[in-house]
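fold-stage: in
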Amino acid sequence: MARSSPKQNPVTATGVHFGLIGHVTPNELHRKMGEGEFYNGFMNRFLWTVTRRERSLPDPPAYEGAIVRAHRKLWSDAIRAGRDIKRVTRDEEATAVWHEVYEGLHRGNEQRPGLTAEVCARAHVLVIKLSLIFAALDGSHTITAAHQDAALAKSIHLALVARRVVAGVR
């Protein structure tokens, strides 16, 4: 249950999920996380990614004008279309691929034991959620092979990142 703290018009929400975007250095991650956080399921609830700064940009260009309008239109159109979606299914091609990859995603821990496997333990759930997001952004009530392939690519990236995340864990 989540509650807001304002005294006027307090809000209570039940059955909620929270999203989180954060930044952490590898050294900080390793100082704060021990093996317990990997094995107890905490670490596999995150969509891990690794980035590298290509250049120093203390004063990035302003985010304004035509690009803001274009992004606003894309997001507004996706939200508007998403409101009309009542049921989402996979198309035939996505279903066939899903049946081929599901066990490997779900049982990946058996194939790569250890901390890396623990970080990837919910890869099958991640693929479903990302596929849904990609379909919704397209305003589609059908998960296509393209939506699912993009999500599967992210799960491969997750496995590669997981190896870096666990390197040096105490």
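fold-stage: in (second)
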Amino acid sequence: MQPRHLYENGIGVEQSDLKAAELYKQAANEGVARAQYNLGHLYEDGRGVTQSDEEAAQWYQKGAAQGDSMAQMNLGIFYQDGRGVPQDHVESVRWLRKAADQGEAIAQFKLGMKYQNGSGVAQSYVEAARWYRKAADQGHSMAQCNLGALYGSGRGMAQSDAEAARWYKLAADQGDAQALCNLGRFLENGIGMAVDFVEAARCYRKAAEQEHAYGQFHLASMYEKGRGVAKSGEEAVKWNKKASDLGLAKAQYALGNIFGTGSGVAQSYAEAARWYTIAATNGHALAQVNMGTLCATGNGVTQSNSEAAHWYRKAAEQGDATAKRNLAVLMKTGVA
């Protein structure tokens, strides 16, 4: 191991980013490609040198030009994000592909994302799946999760719930929050595997504990229904509130339903209206319908046909049939 690596990692010597940067710079100026990458990384993080995306990009370019796969990958990411270089998705793809061809799993995953989204390349689920598989075969959890999603939807390959479940489980076993949430959904509904509420709840909890909003929302639903866990309105409210704090309108709507019906908690139209209003403001059509109904009836809020019409109209603009019917009734009274 070179002395510069020893100083960076504190192996056998006192750890020193300053000394590591000095040695990396010396080697980089001598044309050592991996040193050019490492120096770029120090500039990117601001360790041992003043942080500078521009300096990082310059050193990544030098290392990439010599074929260093990590430099190529990071340069591709810099072009993607417009860090230290003008944003250029075509250039991003070019450098990511070079790194991916050398077997860099992260580059393969990111190239798969490029193909899935049509960013810098022609959109292609087939190519996205091909690159995800390369990264997934190396154990990249996000690639495994995305490959599972493509199997589940049948995009880029023959649809297979069993294969989707297999890839979700591989990613979930590594702690990937999205994969845990997806696997939980499969277990809860018996998609590609046997129904197992206990295991589904466990998956949702693991995702929820990583601040995954949908994991929190689904765990709340399990508590509300008593699936795989003891039924608990308090726990349902707790986890829905966590998801709501992360901006998930579905959880905000669910809280409106819980308080509106008194499901495991004290029934309160006022509290229901509060949560429906938040969800409705965030564009949730069913919450908009329910707010319209509360305004029309005066439950939990001051009765107001004009406010009811306001919310029905917003839901109707999203195509909700109930909102359209209710709005039509109000229009006949001349208040909409």
